[in-house]
Amino acid sequence: MNAPELRAEDVTVRFAGLTALDEVSFTVAPGSAHALIGPNGAGKSTCFNVLSGLYRPATGSVRLGETELTRLAPHRIAALGVARTFQNIVTTEGTVADNLMLGRHVLTRAGFTASALHLPRARREQREHLARVREIAELTGLAAHFDTPVALLSYGDRKRVELARALCLEPRVLLLDEPVAGMNAAERARTAGVIRDVRAELGLSVVLVEHDMGLVMRLADEVTVLDFGRAIAHGSPDDVRRDPEVLRAYLGT
Ligand code: ADP
Ligand code: MG
Asked: What stretch or stretches form a coiled coil here (predicted)?
């Protein structure tokens, strides 16, 4: 198991007059799959933006194991092993291989000048990255399209390129913001299988924002429910599904 615990404690985020997160706490156990669910506008993406360092919370903290992430820049948090995908970003440029190699940038040691001059060390490093990136394409069901321009792929494959690119960072914690949104049933099932496989194979933790309750039930060990910026329930998928406050939040009764 290579994933440390990820812990958010009393995280509050405010935007001019709006409290997007109100003292939200949750813990992602090492190697677990943790789903963050809740109605639109509940604060799920804001939460990811805090975990990945794009937003600084007004109060509260985020820790990865013993390391305080709260005031670190996004690239530092990425280098510590927290990778993410974005809800509405799907790449349209380059081949699958190009996009995955981009995901290796944070890990490149040889530096830009050495790479540009094609020095032996940089060439060797490049070969190693390429070999690993092929393995990740294999794991994510993209191997057959390795040299294909992403613009020619189906929507489901293109969205899975985002997941694969995040994996290229060799994360210990993977944050997936609506990884199957917009996919058809077959693509959803395939992507769910990939998420399950990479977690088992790589021993990482997954934090998943998802509307598809079937997928949450199948993938998540634990669920945190957000509603109007507050964490209103924690528990197993079965527990939260029966929670009266959760039903109220979803059904508005
Ligand atoms: P979710 O992902 O659960 O649908 P978000 O985290 O995107 O919800 O948004 C939570 C609330 O915060 C919403 O009311 C949204 O309009 C608001 N919000 C999110 N990001 C910003 C921002 N950068 N500036 C102002 N308001 C924002
Ligand atoms: Mg969102």
From this structure: none
Average pLDDT rounded to a whole number, residues 178-185 = 93
Structural domains of the chain ordered from first start: 6-251 (3.40.50.300)
Q: How far is the CA of 132 from the centre of ligand 2 (A)?
A: 31
| 41 CB within 6 A, ligand 1 | yes
Q: CB neighbours (10 Å) of residue 73?
A: 10
Q: Which atom of ligand 1 is nearest to the CA of 177?
A: 2
d(CA 179, CA 158): 11
**Does residue 253 have a pLDDT over 60?**
no
pLDDT by residue (tens digit) across 209-246?
Answer: 998 888 998 999 999 999 999 999 999 999 998 888 88
165 and 192 in contact (C-beta within 8 Å)? no
pLDDT digits 0-9 by tens, 39-90: 999 999 999 999 999 999 999 999 999 999 999 999 999 999 999 999 887 7
Q: Where is 224: in which H helix or E strand? A: strand 222-227
Distance from Cα 33 to the centre of ligand 1, integer Å? 24
CA of 156 to the centre of ligand 1 (A): 25
Q: Which atom of ligand 1 is closest in space to residue 209's alpha carbon?
A: 2
Please give the number of the atom of ligand 1 that sits closest to the Cα of 42.
3
